[in-house]
Design goal:
heterodimer; A: about 300 residues; alpha/beta; TIM Barrel; eight-stranded parallel barrel; 13 helices; about 50% helix; globular; B: about 325 residues; Rossmann fold; Dihydrodipicolinate Reductase, domain 2; 2 domains; eight-stranded mixed beta sheet; 8 helices
């Protein structure tokens, strides 16, 4: 059993975006109801009532709308927020529609200016003038933090901001230790725990250790499930590295292997893992939200 | 795609990313910060001084021919990977194949679905005669890329839906069934700009009939998806990006998801198959082997695309 009993339980947003990693067919037949902000907000609040501590989500118009619905619901919902940025799907889609990266850059510049967020604009100008990746990242993050805070209101607690899996893994592959350092410093200065969503947990831990970057300052969100689904290079290797790291804040995602596993066996497996400090799971129906978080609380909570 | 391939290549053992060629000055300035150990150049001709072992061509389709020709004729490199499609016409594809035959080396086209565990399982089942004699198939390639906006003219830069998405279904069909003849074809546009948005065509081979349906305006296809339903004398085989299902007469259907098919890789970026694809090309380049699908093989997809367009014009 895990050495730490109580874990952070988070609602994930994949079902709200119509994402299923088991099959696209499944996400299509799951229907459109969960894509509506009102219903999604309701699911998050039901999950919260049944034991969820917070919400892990990609920052998009839909999820910001969900946050606004929760804020305006009149219910006393104090959520811990774990946003993931950028919402890659939307940016790739926009790049296709706007004629590639230059079109996308123009759109972002316009949004930055109309946001009237001075800090973000200054970072943006610096990025353009010096072709500076760090300034560009800071401009983007400043812009997103302000969008989240204004949508979520004061009752929500912005705990962490996680880099999307594609960005984390690309920067890992390119050995960009300086980028990770800059991100960690920037997020820490904002009073948040820097987070990284990765599909290469073992590779990330190895790199951080080689670069001398402490794992105790960050949150890692990575797939852990009994099926070994998306656990690269293998389930065994991921478990071995997980058990050996010191002071980690690892949040397990894909714990149901996209619906391939039944919830009880999936959660039992997570309970056996040392060093997993939280889980994020998607819910698409009210009874699903109730049952899942009750079960998670029962098996992983106090 | 260039960025994804570059990142994966950078983590593969025995590979050193030596140079990046990018025309845009602004993009080069940013890339220089990302690729600190690679040379940043603005013209493919400048690759000649770098003593390279292999080159990935990930530029827009219309430029594939000129770049591949340059790489061979200037003796820059023999091992060449080109993103799909091989060229923007069958004539150009044939000429690239001619260069490849003359200069040798390993060559490959990025038909990534050949590295999906699901399509590999389907291929193995077909080779094992799991559904008996194959008689007919229906295949689709759908995405919602332009389902909402209808701004499909932008997609013209991607070569139209047949080159962008339909080519994957064609490549897989050629891989599964061998050579095919185009019987009838219809191409439709959702806008006045004449963009190629919906394509439907039928093919024939010896004792086999097939139907293709391709669109990038299909609602609810959040991600592009390719799928087949293949009918044989003993049953039906269904396969798409996510699962394979075997329905034999009087038997309970069997379904395999990615989870059941050993989908893990050493480094996951985008989808696991990109890693397998790059690993395949690199390993064969190192051993002077023949990659799949090579230029000759991919040229057949360009040939089918040309025939579909020609048949569609005849039918107008």
């Amino acid at each position: 059993m895990s050495d730490v009993k109580e874990k952070v339980l988070l609602v994930g947003d994949n079902p709200f975006h119509g994402i299923s990693h088991l099959s696209q067919e499944r996400s299509r037949t799951r229907g459109d109801d969960s894509t509506l902000a009102e219903q999604a907000a309701n699911l998050v609040m039901i999950s919260h009532e049944n034991g969820a501590d917070g919400f892990m989500f990609s920052v998009s118009d839909l999820t910001l709308s969900i946050l606004r619905k929760i804020k305006g619901s009149g219910r006393n919902v104090s959520l811990d927020l774990y946003p993931i940025v950028p919402y890659m799907y939307e940016y790739v889609r926009l790049a296709n529609l706007l004629g590639g990266i230059p079109g996308l850059a123009r759109k972002f510049a316009r949004e930055l200016v109309t946001s009237r967020n001075l800090k973000a604009i200054v970072y943006g100008l610096d990025a353009a003038a010096r072709a500076d990746v760090t300034s560009l990242t800071k401009a983007y993050l400043t812009y997103e933090i302000s969008r989240i805070k204004s949508s979520a209101g004061k009752q929500a607690n912005l705990c962490s901001m996680l880099l999307h899996q594609s960005i984390t893994d690309m920067t890992l592959a390119l050995d960009m230790d300086w980028f990770f350092e800059a991100y960690i410093d920037f997020m820490s200065n904002q009073g948040m725990t820097p987070g990284f969503n990765t599909g290469n947990f073992v590779y990330l831990v190895d790199k951080f250790e080689a670069w001398g970057l402490g794992l105790d300052r960050i949150i890692i969100a990575a797939p852990f499930n009994k099926a070994g689904f998306q656990m690269n290079p293998s389930r065994m290797e991921c478990e071995k590295i997980l058990s050996g790291i010191k002071n980690p804040m690892v949040i397990a995602i894909s714990i149901f292997a996209a619906g391939y596993l039944n919830p009880s066996e999936a959660i039992d497996y997570i309970a056996t893992l040392p060093n997993v400090k939280g889980v994020a799971v998607g819910v698409s129906r009210e009874n699903h939200a109730r049952d899942t978080f009750k079960l998670l609380k029962e098996k992983l909570g106090d | 795609m260039g960025l994804v391939h570059s990142c994966i290549l950078n983590v593969l053992p025995n590979v050193k990313l030596a140079a990046v060629c990018e025309k845009s000055g602004m993009t080069r300035r940013f890339l220089r910060k990302l690729f600190k150990n690679a040379r940043m150049i603005d013209d493919a001709e400048k690759l000649s001084s770098l003593d390279l072992d292999a080159v990935y061509v990930t530029t827009p389709i219309p430029s594939h021919f000129a770049i591949a020709k340059l790489l061979y004729s200037e003796g820059i490199v023999q091992n060449i990977f080109v993103e799909k499609t091989l060229a923007s016409s069958y004539e150009q594809a044939k000429e690239i194949c001619m260069f490849a035959r003359r200069f040798g080396g390993t060559n490959m086209v990025g038909y990534v679905r050949r590295f999906y565990v699901t399509f590999n399982k389907a291929k193995a089942l077909l080779e094992a005669d799991a559904i008996g004699e194959v008689r007919a198939f229906k295949t689709y390639g759908y995405s919602a890329d332009f389902a909402e906006s209808g701004e499909t003219r932008v997609g013209g830069s991607r070569g139209g839906v047949l080159m962008d998405l339909g080519c994957h279904a064609i490549d897989l069909a050629l891989w599964f069934f061998g050579d095919l003849d185009v019987e009838t074809a219809k191409i439709n546009s959702v806008s006045d700009g004449g963009s190629e948005d919906f394509v439907h065509f039928e093919v024939k081979a010896k004792d086999l009939e097939g139907e293709f349906d391709v669109s990038w305006c299909k609602p609810n296809y959040r991600m592009p998806e390719v799928g087949f339903a293949i009918s044989g004398s003993k049953g039906v085989l269904e396969v798409n990006d996510d699962f394979v299902q075997l329905k034999l007469r009087d038997a309970k259907p069997l379904r395999w998801y990615r989870h059941d098919l050993n989908d893990n890789v050493d480094f996951w970026l985008g989808e696991p198959e990109y890693f397998r694809e790059d690993q395949h090309f690199v390993n064969l380049s190192l051993n002077n082997g023949e990659a799949e699908p090579n230029f000759e093989c991919a040229a057949k997809t360009d040939e089918i695309i040309a025939k579909v367009k020609s048949k569609a014009e005849e039918n107008e």
